[in-house]
Amino acid sequence: MSGWWKLAVTNARRHTEGGQRSPAEEALRKPSAELERRVAERTQALEEANTRLHERERALADKTALLESTFDALDQGICVLDEHQKLLAWNKAFAGLAMHDAVNLRAGMAMAELMQAMPWVGYEPDAGARPERVLAPSDAPRSDHDSIMRACGVEQIAANERLLQVGRLHKPDGGFVFTVADVTEQQQIFSKAFSPAGAPVPEPEDKIGWLAAIVDSSFDAIISKKLDGQITSWNAAAEHIYGYSAAEMIGQSIEIIVPEDRRGELRSIHERLRRGERVPPFETVRLTRDGRRIDVQLTMSPIIDSEGAVVGASGIGRDITQRQQAEVALRDREAKFRAVIETAADGIIIIDPQGTIQVFNPASERIFGYRPDEVIGRKIEMLMPPSHAVRHDQYLERARRTDEGQKIVVGREVEGLRKDGATVPLELSVGAARQDGTQIFVGIVRDISERKRADRERQSALDELARSNQDLEQFADVVSHDLQEPLRMVSSYCELLRRGYRGRLDDDADQFIDFAVDGAQRMQLLIQDLLAYSRVGSRGGAFGKTDANHSFELALVNLQEAIAESQVRISADPLPTVFADEVQLVQLFQNLVGNAIKYRRGERPEIHVTAESRGAFWAFAVTDNGIGIKPQFARSIFEVFKRLHSRREFPGTGIGLAVCKRIVERHGGEIWLDCEYRDGARFCFTLPGSGGRS
Amino acid sequence: MTYADSRVEILLVEDNPGDVELTRIAFREAKVPNPLRVVADGVQAMAYLRQEPPFEDAIRPGLILLDLNLPRVDGREVLQTVKSDPELRRIPVCVMSTSRQESDVRRSYDLHANSYISKPVTIAALIEILAQLRNYWLRTVLLPSA
């Protein structure tokens, strides 16, 4: 458009400069004049539009200034939050009414910070309902209202005489408007809010307006009625909670929303109000339009006319169904928790961070001898011997820094102090938990007196055993020396008799002397073997990594005469390194191989030694093809001086296998006769591997 | 064997008459000509060695055969006293005991016993041992002259 206008002007100029006009130019004159006229018209229109725009701008500026000054002039505090709960705008009154002096409001401030600056609201960030969540635009209006109320704690209005209301911003994105009003005067006139007829007591216009606004914007159902139950007022929240509109209810009986079983209660309350009594808030049940029973908390107050007569009652009702349900759930949980604590076999004691006892269960009563009422509220140190109590403060200090749910102490052995002054050994575990936002410590104690006593008994039995072993040892020494001394006399002099008098007495005498010499010598052997047996335990050497191949070789060296004489073929698989006393391992092989040689059979006697891994142990087997052992003797052969054959058949005292058993058992292993093997004898024994005894 | 060798005396410290008699018989059977003197306990043994009453006329022995278990002062104490006495400590002491206990053996050598012999069970073994002892200590080895 402007391009076209410029073109027209240029053309006009060319006319004037030209001077002389051609007929063609003349021909153009008419339309050109027409164009000029139109341009002028358009220009004027534009100018007029501009002027209008300016006027409108000025008007808008005036209006904004008016709004702003009004905004600031309002005695009601207002602030606006965007959809992200960030502060957008606020007026002077908001800063004055809602905030502490020190706080600087700034655009973009987070709601949480804003709330922190409004402590009178009683908003706690950790107390469950987070405003970020409850104010989320997606929430349904009803639950929004409830949640906002909880989050903002309007219960505190009366004390602070300020009212915080939260509304939605009418924008597609959402957002919220907080209004804060000084309601001191309203509070004062609140009880006189309703006249008997339901009409407001004459008051200044604005106050009544305010009052109506409060009643109407209240989240609680506010209903007034005559003493016969006829409803005289019914606010918006009452509509919302009970589902009936004011038009439906005013003039009707309150009993519409009172279930049968609660009508007596209501009448008695009306009766008390009539007498002028105050009725504390109580919880009861009401019916909604759709027939649901809801839990409500009711605050009933009498309505008194100008002469002081009670003419009606006002009721403020709050739907606490959700709260009730939450409480029931909480009670269920509490009951379960109680049951666990009451029936636990272990003592459960809960203390606060100062060490004050909060919970003391029946098992704790049994352990400590106190009743719960004797300890609850007192310090935990009373359950500890003084020496422990001193250290406990440090534990508690460390525990306070421990995170929730973490175990602070696991299975520590401590001493508890009973009511009767006796100490009791306990096993203690402590965990940290959180209750109503404060840290608590849960201690679980187990009385381990029984276990301790069993330990002591076991220890004393072990000591006794060690003592008796030592006694046996001493006895063996006595046997070795003091018994052998006279025995040597007997055998020596019998021998002298034989040397000096053989053939000089009769034949019987010679034989008797032989028996005496033989008996004395056998007794000597028995004593030496018994000594060897008793010394396996006490005179054994230290355990160490021992190459069984080497021990086996040494045993064969010790047996070389017998091996050469018997022509036994002896072989062994590669043997492991074990954790053993080498001298005793040699002795073990020597006794087992020696037995196998002694009890050989047939022309080709053979002995083979093997070993296989069995967990932390090695299982050895010494197998021969000799005369074998009947299974019924499998156990008795390991007894001291147990013999299966006469001395004439096989010489020996019968101590060899008993010594083997003692050696193996000293190493923590076992020895047995493999009864499955029938082609001779197979002795098996286990020894710990070189990793040491497990 | 020279006459002088045969005159070297052997002291037996032994309280059991049976053992004393066995030793005498064994010496006889082994044809050991050396005089055998016998005392029955540690107190007598020390008096004998120090030529104290009633042994003023005692001749210092060339070999001591010492039993460990003696009444009054026992063999271990005699051994210790002899081996810490500059006058006596060069005399070879052979401990003869029924005990084969490692502790007795070790203790005896710790006290500087010259040999430890476990009393044999048979008389034949005793004869053999005593013959060896006498040959070794009184004929084979060279000892300082008193």
Describe the structure.
- The complex is a heterodimer of chains A (694) and B (146).
- Chain A is of the alpha+beta class.
- Chain A folds into 6 domains: 2-59; 74-182, 2-Layer Sandwich (Beta-Lactamase); 187-325, Beta-Lactamase (2-Layer Sandwich), CATH 3.30.450; 344-447, PAS domain (Beta-Lactamase), CATH 3.30.450; 453-532; 540-688, 2-Layer Sandwich (Heat Shock Protein 90).
- In chain A, the strands form 5 sheets. Chain A has a 5-stranded antiparallel beta sheet with strand order 6-5-9-8-7. Chain A has a 5-stranded antiparallel beta sheet with strand order 11-10-14-13-12, sandwiched between helices. Chain A has a 5-stranded mixed beta sheet with strand order 16-18-19-21-20.
- In chain A, helix 17 packs antiparallel against helix 18 and helix 18 runs parallel beside helix 22.
- Mean pLDDT of chain A is 78; it is low at 1-18, 124-160 and 188-204.
- Chain B has a 5-stranded parallel beta sheet, sandwiched between helices.
- The longest helix of chain B has 18 residues, at 123-140.
- Chain B has one domain: 3-Layer(aba) Sandwich (Rossmann fold).
- With 146 residues, chain B is α/β, with parallel strands linked by helices.
- Chain B has helices at 3-7, 17-29, 42-49, 75-83, 102-110, 123-140; strands at residues 10-13, 36-39, 63-67, 93-97, 115-118.
- The chains are: A alpha+beta (694), B alpha/beta (146).
- The A-B interface holds A 477, 480-481, 484-485, 488-489, 491-493, 495-496, 499, 520-521, 524, 539 and B 16, 18-19, 22, 25, 69, 97-102, 119, 121-124, 126.
